[in-house]
Amino acid sequence: MKKTFLPCEEANIVCDKSQYSEASFMEIIKLNLHLLYCKACRTYSANNAKLSQLFKKVKPATLQADQKNKLQKEIEEQLKKQ
Amino acid sequence: MPNHEINPNNWVKLYSDYLYNYTITRVNDHEVAQDLISETFMAGLKSMKNFKGEASERTWLISILKRKIIDHYRKINSNKGKAEVRVNFSSNEDSEGDWLEERVSDPHNRNAETAIENTELGNAIQNCLGKLPKKQAHIFEMKTILNYDTETICNELEITASNLWVIIHRARTAMASCLEKNWF
């Protein structure tokens, strides 16, 4: 990404990356520059941040990896028996 | 009608989180939920022959799980005494003679409300995840809920980073519009 002015698609991807804190410093600057003149991407960024907030608020319950492995083993054993 | 196939080796990967979330909101106990899911998978394996492919695997597993949850409540309620609520005056000497009403939980305590809201949100999220294409949902879940590194996901699924971000972008857009109505 050598361009100073990002097209919307790239700006959106940078916005996604920044939600996971994986955007580089230059990318964030370019994103903010883009947001200055692009209303659609401003809306997208705002919604994107809200989505992240929702996921922060509730951790959907998940099983731990070792519990999943146990389940997987049980299934494999049962399959052998059949 | 599309014919669905059954593949038990993918069950844990694809459905265990969904089933767990479904169960935990109904039994509120981690151990019990885990046992019920395990029982569900076993029952599913035993009756694999009866799977006609009319419903998706997930729907089919959920229908088994529902039975298991009902059975669970039947079992714990069969001993009627356990279900009885006994109200006793406090045995604590300090509060001897206090009115029972004073021990009722604080109505301004918002914990219960927040907990309900969180379960509802959890359900809504799982629901929306279910509507995404399988691959998108899987990647989005790994990234957002399980917090895997980009690199780990890319290696595991053999995709490039830019490929991953495009998939994440599509998933996020879909999730946003799905959750928009009730949660934004």
Structural write-up:
The complex is a heterodimer of chains A (82) and B (184). In chain A, 74% of the residues lie in helices and 0% in strands. Chain A is an all-alpha fold. Chain A has one domain. In chain A, α1 packs across α2 and α1 runs parallel beside α3. The longest helix of chain A has 19 residues, at 39-57. The radius of gyration of chain A is 21 Å and the shape is elongated. Chain B is mainly alpha-helical. Chain B folds into 2 domains: 1-80, Rna Polymerase Sigma Factor, Chain: A (Orthogonal Bundle); 133-184, Arc Repressor Mutant, subunit A, CATH 1.10.10. Helices cover 67% and strands 0% of the residues of chain B. Chain B has helices spanning 11-27, 30-46, 57-78, 80-83, 111-131, 134-145, 150-157, 161-183. Chain B is globular, with a radius of gyration of 22 Å. The two termini of chain B are 36 Å apart. The model of chain B has no long low-confidence stretch (mean pLDDT 78). The chains are: A mainly alpha (82), B mainly alpha (184).
Note the topology.
The complex is a heterodimer of chains A (82) and B (184).
Chain A: H1 8-19, H2 25-37, H3 39-57, H4 65-81
Chain B: H1 11-27, H2 30-46, H3 57-78, H4 80-83, H5 111-131, H6 134-145, H7 150-157, H8 161-183
Helix pairs in contact in B: 1-2, 1-3, 1-5, 2-3, 5-8, 6-8
Number of strand elements of chain B: 0
Percent strand of chain A equals under 5%
The CATH superfamily of the largest domain in chain B is known as RNA polymerase sigma factor, region 2, helix turn helix motif
Largest sheet of chain A: none
Cα shape of chain B: globular
H/E order of the elements of chain A?
HHHH
Q: What count of helical segments of chain B does DSSP give?
A: 8
Q: What is the strand content of chain B?
A: under 5%
Largest interface: A-B, 30 and 39 residues
Mean pLDDT, all residues of chain B: 78
Tally of discrete structural domains of chain A: 1
Gyration radius of chain B, rounded: 22 Å
Which architecture of the largest domain in chain B would the CATH scheme give at its second level? Orthogonal Bundle
Roughly what is the average pLDDT of chain A, rounded to an integer? 86
Quote the distance from N terminus to C terminus of chain B: 36 Å
User: Largest sheet of chain B, if any?
Assistant: none
Got a strand count of chain A? 0
The total of helices of chain A stands at 4
Span between N and C termini of chain A? 55 Å
Oligomeric category: heterodimer
